[in-house]
Every structure is written in C-alpha cells, then in structure tokens.
Amino acid sequence: MKLKTGASDLTLRLGSGTFALALVLIVVGIGYVLWDEARLSIEKFGLAFWSRSHWDPVSGEFGAFPFIWGTLYSSILALLIAGPVAIGIAIFLSELCPQKLRAPLTFVTELLAAIPSIVYGLWGIFVLVPAVRTLQLSLPEWMTAMPLFSGPPVGVNLLTASIVLAIMIVPYSSSIAREVLRSVPVAQREGACALGATRWEAIKVALHYGRAGIVGAIMLGFGRALGETMAVTMVIGNNPQAKWGLFEPSYTMAAVIANEFREAVEDLHLHALVEIGLVLFVVTLIINLGSRLLIWNMTRDRTPKPRATTAAQPEAAS
Measured in whole angstroms, how far is the alpha carbon of residue 46 from the centre of its chain? Predict the structure, then answer.
C-alpha cells in the first residue's frame, strides 16, 4: 500500500511538473520565435531601435520609442483611473452592499469583461470621442496652452484611449480584489471592531491584510491594458509621436502591428513590426516581474520569524 501511494505521489509530481515546465517552454519559445523573425531589424538597428523616434517604412527607418511611449502612457493613465474605481467596487460589493443587490451587481460588473473590445471601440467613437472633444473645447485657453493639455480638438487622443482602457480593465481588477477581500479572515474585522474601530477602520484593516492580492489584481488589469489592440486603435489617433499632451494623438505597439502587418511588403518593415512585438513581449515580462517582486516584498513581512530564545541565567546566590 505504501509503495502504491509513493508511486501515485511520484506520478502526480511528474505530471504536474511537466505541465509547469511546458508553460515555461512556451514562453521561451515565443520569445525565440519573435527574436528569430526580427533578426534583420535587430542586426540593423540594435538597441537603438528602442530609443529611435523615426518611423518611415518608405525610407526604411524604424524606431519603437513612440509606440513604447504611447503604450506605457495610455496604460499607466488607465491604471490611475481604474485602480481606485476597481478597489471601490470591490469594497462596496464585499463589505457594504446589501445582500439582495450583491449578486446582481456582481453579475453586471463581471459582464463588462465579456464585452468584445471592438464594441468598446465603437462606443468610444460614437460616445466618448465627442464627449472628450467637448471637454477639450470647454477648457480655458490658459489650460490648453499647458503641454499636459495640448493637442488638436479632434477627440481621438491619449485621454480617450486611456478612459476606454480603464473601463475595460475595471471588471478584471475589481473581481479579483473582491475575492481577495472576501478571503480575509473574519477575525481581522472582528478584532478591529472589538478594539473600538469604526466600520471604515475595520475595512482598512481588511485592505491592509489583503494588500498583496489587491496589488496583484491591479497589476493584472495593467497587463490587460498593455496588450489591448482594437479598442485602442480606434480611438487613440495612431500618430507615431511621443508627446506629453493628454489630447495628443498617439500610437501603441499593438496598434501599429495590427495596422501595418498586412501592408508590410519589405522584409525590413516586416522584421521591424515583429521586433515591436518582441519589445511588447519584453516590456510585459519586465512589468510582471516587477509586480511579482513588489508582491513578494509586501508578503515578506507576514512570514513568521523564529523568536530568539535565550537560556535563563540563574541568579547568583547572595
């Protein structure tokens, strides 16, 4: 019986380990294929491809910096918008929402994640673009003269794309953050209330206890925003220039691949687009690695540390 149990445990470990190793090999294989298909661009431009700002398929000059800028700028701005909203939704649904409304509101929130991105793009074109254009035209001249609020009043710009991205990532972040808060032991809240804490102070205790999971939920939404293609392509303006203005048209790495991949005739142009995908792959890995290090640093404090034991010294007899 012991031998059979040992064999079963060994089979389970080998099987699960094989699946885990397969995922690692898939990631490595994706990176290798992207690098191999972008070799012509890598050999010609090198690491300067990351910092070059000129993108001209006709003259054969390619640089990824405007696309990296547009991707990170729009995603970070979307994260700043969606993060507080997602945490607020998670707090309300897990802590404050009446029982009768909790299930319907949870269903509606998760339903947003099932809407195709093309639908978000169409909604952005017909609803959000005119609204952002009206907002820009209503701003005073002294504000539009500032670099942060500069740009043509056309409505397709970084701000519009960031708002669409924020709406798209809210369901992912809020759902995971809600489950994190629900998994916080009741003893944490009861202990805070027993010490005289208010309802909000007890919620803050729960937020502090589940902070690692909440950060993970926000970073998952950030990763979702980095790779979004169709909705962003329809509302960001697709202009390969790196500017600070919220109302400036911009471009993302996923958008330029979607727009130009089928039209790429020259080998160098095609390899440059594949290298854009490689850059997006590397940036995503770096951000995920950074988020894992952040979560590890936050959870490190919870690890119980062994107490130093000292032998009791007998008192000297007087």
Answer: 28
| 102 falls within a domain | yes
Does residue 144 sit within a domain?
A: yes
The rounded distance, in Å, linking the Cα atoms of 293 and 180 is 19
CA distance 312 to 246: 67
Distances (CA, A) of 45 to 30, 57, 60, 158, 281: 21, 14, 11, 28, 18
Say if residues 180 and 211 touch (Cβ distance below 8 Å): no
Instruction: Tell me which residue range forms the domain holding 226.
Output: 22-299
pTM above 0.70, yes or no: yes
How far is the C-alpha of 75 from the C-alpha of 219, rounded, in Å? Answer: 11
Three-state DSSP state, 239: coil
The predicted-structure confidence for 236-267, as pLDDT tens digits, reads as follows: 999 999 999 999 999 999 999 999 988 888 89
Question: Measuring CA to CA, which residue among 283, 239, 234 is closest to residue 55?
Answer: 239
Which residues lie below 8 Å from residue 188, measured CB to CB, with a gap of 6+?
205, 206, 209
Q: Phi and psi of 61, rounded to 5°?
A: -110, 125
pLDDT in tens, 295-307: 787 777 555 555 5
Tokens found for residue 242:
């790196």
C-alpha of 263 from chain center: 29
Total number of domains constituting the chain: 1
